[in-house]
């Protein structure tokens, strides 16, 4: 009876209702910090450092993860026995390679995945997804966050009757269990530089972060608030 009710709801609501019935409500959280904006047209203010990352950097990072670590899985540890409700990120599938694309002012993330889902029997999943990343900066925490948003899912060989359920499951498994991404925090953003000749040290905290995606590169503009401290304080 529970399956029949979920099936009806899934057909009517495109699978969203079924996700809540089978997987449970997603973990709610409040987005931290403020949305990172584009740099000012007049140029960055004084005290700004620029961090530049290209697509090749992210490609090497992901390659190392797949080669040296386990494939990212959501949830990371499923139950020991039985059919697992789990999505596993794969290096590639159906001609799509997992990576980071820096074009058209956006950070997009094509994802290849596999997995299993307990729905009318154990469903084996394989497909691709498209996601984007929004940046948020929490100055009080000195932390740069990323918000991963899955915008589309394509599952290979899935029945249309089950497609809505599976799409909602994959989106929820990634969106709700990954976020928020901690990209930079603490010592990666703050500075503490001893200046012995001046009898103290120079400290700096990030007070603003801007981002720009252009020509296959991500540029982060980090503006610092500097303060000198005399002696060993």
Biggest beta sheet summary: 8 strands, antiparallel
Shape: elongated
Radius of gyration: 22 Å
Q: List the helices and strands in order.
A: HHEEHEEEEEEEEHEEEE
Summed up, the helix count is: 4
Question: How do the strands and helices of this protein lay out in sequence?
Answer:
Layout: H1 2-13, H2 16-23, E1 34-35, E2 48-54, H3 55-68, E3 73-74, E4 86-90, E5 92-93, E6 96-97, E7 101-103, E8 106-118, E9 122-138, E10 143-155, H4 160-178, E11 181-185, E12 191-195, E13 200-214, E14 217-230
Antiparallel strand pairs: 1-9, 2-14, 3-4, 4-8, 5-6, 7-8, 8-9, 9-10, 10-11, 12-13, 13-14
Helix pairs in contact: 1-2, 1-4, 2-4
Describe this structure in words.
- This protein is α+β, with helices and mostly antiparallel strands and 233 residues long.
- It has one domain (2-25, 33-230).
- Helix content is 23%, strand content 45%.
- The chain has helices spanning 2-13, 16-23, 55-68, 160-178, and strands at 34-35, 48-54, 73-74, 86-90, 92-93, 96-97, 101-103, 106-118, 122-138, 143-155, 181-185, 191-195, 200-214, 217-230.
- Helix 1 packs antiparallel against helix 2 (16-23), helix 1 crosses helix 4 (160-178) and helix 2 packs across helix 4.
- It is elongated.
- The model is unreliable at 1-28 (pLDDT under 50).
What key attributes describe this structure?
elongated, alpha+beta, eight-stranded antiparallel beta sheet, four-stranded antiparallel beta sheet, disordered N terminus, 45% strand, 23% helix, 233 residues
Question: What would a concise description of this structure say?
Answer:
This protein is an alpha+beta fold.
